[in-house]
Design brief:
With 244 residues, this protein is mainly beta. The protein is built from 2 helices and 18 strands. Helix content is 5%, strand content 48%. It is globular.
Length: 244
């Protein structure tokens, strides 16, 4: 089982040829992917953006590694009055030769009413971008020159699958928002924004949401237009992990 190496607040892990890194003190920086020869996928994904009502950036108060999970707890966010806890879990899908990171966002509050709304952003400049349309059973996508590409979803708990690819790289980045998490998504060329927890949060309730980013060889994805959906099927079967 792959695990994280922790050096201060910086966590790194190796999956296949990739080094994955997260600075838990700066969750807004997201998950960075890199290879030694810099010929593979290079990008930053799963950036945590706190509620807009928060008056300051998240302040880390606890950090540890448990198995394949990196677990970070933050102070209650002034203004938003919610306390975030983030889990970064290393993932592998041997059949698809895919590697990934799941981000679990957990929010709680000490007040009777608070603002938990937060956004997870992935930015892959100039990547061809497509989202699976469940109704029409096809991909809605952009070309690299389609700067006006802009898709916005209504709040949905049905799950989302977004596919980013560039011609010069052997792997694509596939992002999966788990079913049962009510999320609003905005997709533009090379960028995704997933908004979690749009409803107020009250004391005694913990809200959780999950999103996973996968690197998958293009050769596997091209076997069928529904091949990326195997990652969504995996998400459907996965139980919500224990949290502390």
């Amino acid at each position: 089982m792959a695990t994280w190496d922790l050096n201060g607040t910086l966590a790194t892990a190796t999956l296949g040829e990739y080094q994955i890194s997260v600075d838990a003190a700066l969750p807004t920086s997201g998950v960075a992917w890199s290879t030694a020869d810099r010929k593979g996928f290079q990008g930053t994904t799963l950036q945590f953006r706190p509620p807009v009502s928060a008056r300051a950036a998240p302040v880390l108060v606890d950090l540890y590694v448990r198995g394949s999970d990196l677990v970070a707890t933050y102070e209650e966010l002034s203004g938003a009055a919610v306390q975030p806890q983030l889990y970064w879990r290393l993932l592998e899908h041997p059949a698809m030769k895919a590697i990934g990171v799941q981000l679990l966002i957990s929010m709680q509050t000490s007040l009777l009413n608070s603002e938990p709304r937060c956004t997870i952003v992935s930015e892959l400049p100039e990547a061809r971008t497509a989202i699976w349309n469940w109704k029409e059973k096809t991909w809605w996508g952009s070309d690299k020159d389609q700067q006006g590409f802009d898709l916005r979803s209504d709040p949905s708990a049905g799950g989302f699958v977004t596919w980013f690819s560039t011609q010069q790289e052997p792997n694509s980045y596939v992002e999966v928002i788990y079913p049962d998490d009510r999320v609003t998504q905005k997709i533009t060329l090379g960028r995704s924004e997933a908004c979690f927890f749009s409803e107020p949060l009250e004391k005694g309730v913990i809200r959780r949401g999950r999103i996973a980013g996968w690197l998958v060889p293009n050769a596997k994805l091209m076997e069928s237009k529904v091949e990326p959906l195997r990652l969504f099927e995996l998400a459907q079967k996965e139980a919500l992990p224990l949290t502390t």
